[in-house]
Amino acid sequence: MKLIGSPTSPYVRKVRAVLAEKKIEYEFAVDVSGDENSVARWNPLGRVPVLILDDNTILFDSRVIVEYLDNLAPNNRLIPPPGRERIVVRRWEALADGICDAAVGAVMEGRRPATQQSAEWVGRQRATIARGLAACAEDLGEQAWCHGTAATLADIAVGVMLGYLTLRFPDIDWRGQHANLAKHYDKLMRRPSFADTAPPAA
Description:
Layout: E1 2-5, H1 10-22, E2 27-30, H2 36-39, E3 50-52, E4 58-60, H3 62-72, H4 84-110, H5 119-140, H6 153-168, H7 174-177, H8 179-188, H9 192-195
Parallel strand pairs: 1-2
Antiparallel strand pairs: 1-3, 3-4
């Protein structure tokens, strides 16, 4: 199978981390053109990640892809079976992805011509990030993992989000504000799935 995406995208990194945790071999086709028309050859929404299966079936959206991958191999299950625990893990993913959505939106706004940028809109995205981080820190508390007794998709989603903020928003002192998140991220970075997928410096 082939994964198409940018090494700096948090959504792509989430898929790559899941592939590593599941020990699934794949080809990584890097697309950093920023031109949605190139990605639109595979995904009509013009967004990464895109996963092309061996039978040429095309999957897109990180949440769809990671669910497919977790069901593809029985080892190292990252998403619990249907029920309350599954909802808790997917809720963590939704929270982390929502923070990433706000962060990516703020980054993209900053790339528009200065006269077209909205400081008010960016401020709203940063407020969303701050609220989301506070919620993550409160929900994590002193637990070893976001949910349960081992790493799940919840931890991957949160770790990827924190890595993206580190890359794109060095002025956000989430480490100083939320020591438990910093400890959690440092633990995740000792896993090959995170160490090997760390985005290049901006």
